[in-house]
Input
Amino acid sequence: MTATISETLVDPTGKPADLSPFQRFVSDFCESKVAVAGAIGVLIVALIAVFAPWISPTNPYDLATVDIMDSRLAPGKQMMSGVTAVVGTDGMGRDMLSSMFYGLRISLTVGAMSGFIALMVGVCVGLTAAYFGGRVDTLIMRVVDLQLSFPAILIALVLLATLGKGVDKIIIALIVVQWAYFARTVRGTALVERRKEYIEAAACLALSHRRIVFKHLLPNCLPPLIVVGTVQIANAISLEATLSFLGIGLPVTEPSLGLLISNGFEYMLSGKYWISIYPGIVLLFTIVSINLVGDRLRDVLNPRLER
Amino acid sequence: MSVFIIRRLLQSVVVIWVMSLLVFGGVYLIGDPIDMLINPEADQEDIDAAIRALGLDKPIHEQYWFFLINALKGDLGSSFIFNEPALQLILARMPATMELAFASLFISIFFGIPLGMWAGLHPESIAGRSIMTGSILGFSLPSFWVGIMFIMFFAVILGVLPSGGRAETTEFLGMQVSFLSWDGLSHILLPAVNLALFKLSLVIRLSRAGTQEVIHQDYIKFARAKGVSEKRVILVHVLKNILIPVVTILGLEFGSVIAFAVVTETVFAWPGMGKLIIESIDQLDRPVIVAYLMIIVFMFIVINLVVDILYSVLDPRVRLQDVKA
Amino acid sequence: MEDETPTLAVEDLKTHFFTKLGVAEAVNGVSFTVKKGEVVGLVGESGSGKSVTGFSIIGLVDHPGRVVEGKILFKGEDLAQADDDRMRSLRGRRIAMIFQDPMMTLNPVLRIDTQMIEAVQAHEQVSEKEARETARDALVQVGIPSPDERLKSYPHQFSGGMRQRVAIATALLHKPDLIIADEPTTALDVTIQGQILHEVQKLCRETGMSLIWITHDLSVVAGLADRICVMYAGQIVERGEISDVLDHPLHPYTNGLIGSVPSHNRRGQPLAQIPGMTPSLLNLPEGCAFHPRCPRADGACFVQPQVTEPAKLGHEVRCVHPHLEQA
Output
């Protein structure tokens, strides 16, 4: 009997049925070469961000080593300190390669941190709305809908205008911008799950609210959350870069990729393209890689996204 | 129908009222209104006068009433920097932003719909695939970066288009516009395309999905069975069906075009509201920020209202049913 | 001699769908003729290729399908060889089609007048006013009250039966020689179905046009058709005068179809049914496609059977073991 069941479970793609869900997920994911390339891209970017202080030729924050005489060197020229500026130097004489590594570190940190905290907030709010329903749900979803009807950049703009510049401030702004997406996603999935019988069964067993929500509801909301989370991190990085470019995001002392591009923008018209271009390429590479991974995750996890 | 419009109008009034509460709360309760609304460089006598003028010595509900009345009268405070009423300052910059926004909507519709329909009719062709890849890029690339690339390529390397700014304006139907001259067009082209990229990608996707759905419907086959020419099948039967959702969504997105103009205007030094708000944030010119916020919220609500009503007029299926608001 | 040429002669038509999973032989060697003024019923289960046959004739087979072989002789002209322009000029003018679901055949965002006037103007250089007159007359012909008002309406303001009348009126605009009706009454209520059948029969007799009525419902064609073709898995398995086929079915499949129609006379007896399911077109059984479901099948059925006329001239069957005992 068992044998016949496992035989019928072989799926049409011809994969054996005895793979664990995770192995199956990995093998599904890897079917798309583009997605694998994206995943490798994300890995490279993450590694650079983590190891930036060790792999950068110079420390761009150490003002003692920065020489104004080095400013706006073209790629491949040698700086006063003897280090070759592989992709040139910026207006203040900092090595662009090192600045980019550190900038990537800041961009990724801001993106990932804000994404993660927004996810936490969104999950709590979304689960509350779905689990309790009724007026709580109506009220929360009204707020979510109202917020989502305004473009993210406008909300961030307003917040930063009142809060001022700083890494912490921009993370707060990005959290406020993003939580509603997660809340809506979680609520949508949780509502579907809540109507299923096992939740009723759990309620009949008189399990506590908290246990039902976190042990039963939440795990089922994970696939769509992973997809939305991936896409949101890319969006957060992009939005942070935009805000920093506008000069209302990060302070000049902690340049993210967006700020590096902004700094180079003024020199571009005089043909000193490298100060803007290379950070831009790194930013693009990061965003596109994350989006490729996100697209594939969406296909593989096939969540019931409300969009 | 009229019941629907009245209900929708009431809803909008409620939303505007809620937003006024939020803005009032943000300015008067969380922030210090004396800081927010009175020029920090003013002397004590001026500050006292301003406090009285703004009613800041009154109880909180009276203050709110005062704020509301002032806002309704169009008085949203005066700019610290320009010493002009903030509202006027923004309204003076609005035509430039509107011109840019409409130019980019125009581009989105007149390029997006044909491209999207082409991709929907020929999904396997090289052109169709390229259009879709392009629209994915349009979605994921940060628009300020694309703008910079435009400037570098067309202004710095090729030198065929100006890198920014707006040309001399002329009077047209009572508005100051710049697109009527060749110089004006060359100035608006890059920023308009830049601002349009995101919406263009959206329109391409919507049109493609719509075309692919509609083209397999029986009524398309029936139209062909009547002997109607392929041109008419596509330009009337398919287009009319996809036009309604595309135009509706674009209309709803108009507010976000205005918001994103902040980025494009900064990149291309376009003298509109968006550039003004960035400068104001930079210089802590708070009355202008508050005024901009109120104006854009108001615009959003009006746009949503107009689109909802237009939609019910455009789509015969919606028109006659009692629409649930 | 002119009258001898049938309105339509389909010869060995093969329409295949080239899908990623393989080639689906939806229509696989179909031949039949429709004479002037004749009503021919094309009967079969869903997936038997009857609708694809209809679409092949009018040249509207969906991608990835195409006519790969055979002739479609419309008044002597081979439509399988005709170019797009020629087909377009025939469609709606000389050959018209009525579809299954009246809810889906009219464009929801265009008014009825737009949709009928364009059909008139597609083939005649007339003013909009004249075209509107023609459309109005056609609506009157199919029994739609207050046609002027109706012309200005949108499809969603009509009931299903009304929409099908509009579709029929549209098909009649140019007084075509041939109408292909693809299950036009299946989606309608029984009473409306009766009205439409009556209407169509009347129109056919009045105008002398030929009609191909595609259906899965034997009882519908019984009162309507002059001749009948029974299709199974892309082939015609039995063909003949309506009375011959219904009273003395030769093919076991036809026999099964007739047996599975509930009838007053056999009340109380168990309803006969055909065991099994229609085979996948991607993977048809060897030989006679019906043999896995056939009560009379034996080893001889593994070879593709030839068409024979074992009982009566003009009553053809594609079977090795026809029901001759009933004939």
Q: What stands out?
A: The mean pLDDT of chain C is 85. Chains C and A do not touch (no CB pair under 8 Å).
